[in-house]
Fold:
Amino acid sequence: MRRRRLSLICGKELLDTVRDRRTLFVAFVLPLLLYPALLLVMTQVMGATRRNLQEEPQHVLVERVPDGLREHLEPKLTLFQLDDMDGPVRARLQELLLKLDLKGRLSRREQRIEQPDPKARDPEPDEEVIGGIRTLLDNHGYSGMLVYYPRVSHRAAREQAALLFDPTDERSAAARKKVYTALTDFANDRRRDVIAANPKNRGLLEFVQRPVVVEPVELASKTRKGAYSFAPILGMLLVIMALTSAFYPAVDLVAGEKERGTLETLLVAPVSRTEIVLGKFCAIWTVAMVTALLNLVIMGLTFSKLAGMWAGGGQIAFSMSASAFLVVTASLIPTAALFSALALAISAFATSYKEGQHYLTPLFIAAMPPMMMALLPNVELTYGLAFIPVANIVLLVKAMLLGGESLGPALVTVGAMMLYAGLALAVAVSVFKREEVLFRTGAGKGYDPRSLEAARTGLPTAGQAVLLFFSVVALFFFLSPTSLPDSLGGAVRAVLWAQLGAVLLPTLLFARGRKLSFRETFRLAPLAPRRVPLLMATGVGAALLMAGALSRFFPDLRAENLERAIRPLMAAPLPLLLVLFAVLPPLCEELLFRGFVLSGFRARFGEGKAVVLSAILFGALHMELTRILPTAVIGLLLGFVLVRTGSLLAPILVHAVYNGLLVTLSAAGLEGQIKQNAELLMVGGVILVGLSIALLERARPAAPAPGPGVV
Amino acid sequence: MIVAEGLSKIFHDPRRGGELRAVDRVSFTAQPGRVFGLLGPNGAGKTTTLRILSTALVPTEGRAEVMGLDVAADPVGVRSKIGFLTGTTQIYERLTPREMIRYFGRLYGLGDDVVEQRIEELFDMLDMHSFGDTPNGRLSAGMKQKVSLARTIVHDPPVLIFDEPTTSLDVLVARTVVEFIAACRDRGRTVLLSTHIMGEAESLCDDLAIIHRGRILDQVPVAEVKARAHSDRIEDIFFSLIDACDEDASR
Structure:
């Protein structure tokens, strides 16, 4: 009996939870949809910066480097001679190097190699000296320095090299890796040459084991290294603290008050809405700052303890100078201001504390990409990045802890954050002035039978359109092969999965499941035959324009993309290529974007905005940052064509001709000619598109769609 | 004094693809020293009408004046002339009655000395001294209602608006509220009251408007009805009007 009641209660509670659509959406749907999208963007940004460091030839200052070593260094690095430096600078650097006592360090290292003694350790270099060298190298754009000590006495003697680099600088660390590799290769060369010259040299164990001794000198103190490891975490935690510290009081003071019924009490008092918002904002801001600051202090204490425990007398230390603490505290002020204002605006929409809490997840997810961006190696606070909220604060904390000279960007950061906070506050005030938001529980509560009729027009809602779009993004992600297909069959399967599985199937299932009118949603209307030539011309023009533009502005991108997508398909006959690229995608993608998505947005925002929004989503689906804009432009054109003709067949036709021509051009291997005539193609494309859509007169409205709002 | 002329309120609800006329050309005048009642079923438009008069909502059409001030042009001025009490104007659970009344007294622009003096008066009047410093969250429903009443008249407003003030109160607390309303009227205040309880309307109101589907169907002189024989009670008038209106709508 008891078990039955237990399962009864459990069942009812589950039903209750599932019926709470917001919980469901935030807890399950949102992460499922957003994380893949987020990950894709992140990996692309990250891949780009990684590659840059690998490919970028860092500048390295060298002294007495033999030609053999130079050969190994030069392809990946740009070398500069110490002797070529300006006199006074060189004198200063040499003076510092003298203080560093490289020769002494090297001989002590050799001793340790001969007689390993785990306790023996070279004295820590003087902080002022290494700091001076670091600043000097950095100011002149050098990522590191290599000092070489050849032995002239006899050929098979061990030689020495000292390598100076800054482990707290990604560029320097990358350069160090390359120098190390070059040194290893060079040492192997030497060993081989010496043994080849005289096989007896094989007996010179000291030399054979280690032809070159390398002494790495880290141009960073323990404190600096500690700051370097903890700065990103600290910045990130600071942002998270400020966000949560602001969010909960905001939800309590707005949504909570609505729920408790005390907001209306305040609204009938003779105070203006602006005064209410500003008063609440000041309270939330204060609470957020105090809470976050407390967290920060406790966190700092924990870190210094932790660093001490980890290092065991060693490599890093965490301590925060008073000035750094001040800077972090100061940067908390604008951060907390921005999040307080944002949280205030967002929580005004919620009718209850519980609902308000649900809005935290989206806010968090929105804050994540800029936060991650700031954590990428090699990203530093610049004037441009100072305008990107969240990223700028994380970078500011990093810069301040590492003692960089970035007062200008720091001030811009604070200014930008305050500006955004002001904007968010203005939004909050305007939200508070909207009665349908403030009285959301009250207005529209009265049961209105007409609203049910409106829901039965058979068109999707904007919310459904967005939901479907993100589902497609998620499916695209999960259904795509983990590695690029290398066989024809694999490539064909990948295209089929993407188009049929990720785009077509969910679109049709969604429309069917929601009992939508296929005719209205997908604009299934006949297309007058006289329009066909014009539409084909539009497609041809768009393809010419895009082929020219891509080859002119993104030559690498174009080659790379085409190669990746088509290489395994090169062997395929053109008809198969055309089916895969010129028939399937237009059909599937048009049903989704110009069909479902556009119809969903049209009811809510009107036709013009719906075309623009659906075009943006169309571009976003192609998930490569550089492809978003060109694809969105084509999306605009396709949306326009749909609006003009009132039939989905029109954008399908244009899309098919467009894709078909692009595929044919690349299959024909006309890259070279396209590149030569890029400008001509672009001009011709624009003229052709312009003329053909100008001639495409508006269709006589057939029976107007009984959209919602038309009662 | 409250004057409403042709007030309408239309709610837009794009998600449901339509608009809802919650209040439809409502006109009436409420006089000082009298209780004006709006009697109607749930969803008739009573609350929306009162929210317009208290300036929480802006009318779509028509105009209204409170003590000669236009609700659309001078909302803050109007609010300072009104004491507004509904089931949805709650009190801060984490403050004490004294802190709550002090806060609102200051919001209404009373000086510090005046506020403290006023608190003593109100505590005497409503017999609140015993729980004046206990957090509101720990008070009984009756005590809470007294705090709300004190909050409503802390600035001694010439106009009082009550939106279903006795709904969800037990009989004893409800009687406190009814007596309070009668006392306000006797002190010459303009009282506007919305209710769906016939007895309350009959016993408290001097003028009565029956409202349904956003429209005032009829204004009933209460004194006249009371003077007549039993057969023609407010309830009968009410239901005959409502039924006629619903028949009209379904046709």
